[in-house]
Amino acid sequence: MSNRAESDGKRVEDYWTFGDAIEKEIERCAAISFASHQVNELSRNGVFRSWRCAMPGSWHLAFTITTIPNCLILTGDVGDLIVERHYDMLPWCRGSCRSTGYFAEKVPNNILTTEFNWEFAEAWRRTELQNEDINDEYRCFLEDFDINDESTEAHLYRELSGYVDELPSFRVWTRRFLWCREAIRWFVTHHDEPVVLEPN
Fold it and tell me: Is-contact 100 23, C-beta < 8 A?
């Protein structure tokens, strides 16, 4: 589709590909940013382990990975994230962090993984206007409906509820969550753990 919305000075695809564009941008930036990082083990006592990931002699975009039973904790310049699932989290992360949605399900609810994005809502409005099957009243509403950086999620849903039976989601993965996931992905591909640890 040719319909586009502005995001951070770049043109991004329509509503259906908006979130993917953000993920790909973070993935590309993380690959560049972590290219010179090295893994240094800080401690190890069974499943209680910790590693520092950074460029030699620099703290820029450095992060620490810590594991405890059933939990992996990431802290550092890219953000903070906790993921809970298995006793030894490293083998699980190795495969599961490829799926953003599944990975996000294992983050405790008090850590935001998604956020309202007005640019995403505007991309949806423009995409919706491309639909030739909408009625005139709804089309006029969409043409006049102003979505901008002061728009709130509640306001949009309240206004749309009179026209749309199934309200779309205007939430995208937070950039912080995506950076943290990329840091974990980088770590599990650059660190080989010899043994999967099981509870006694």
Answer: yes
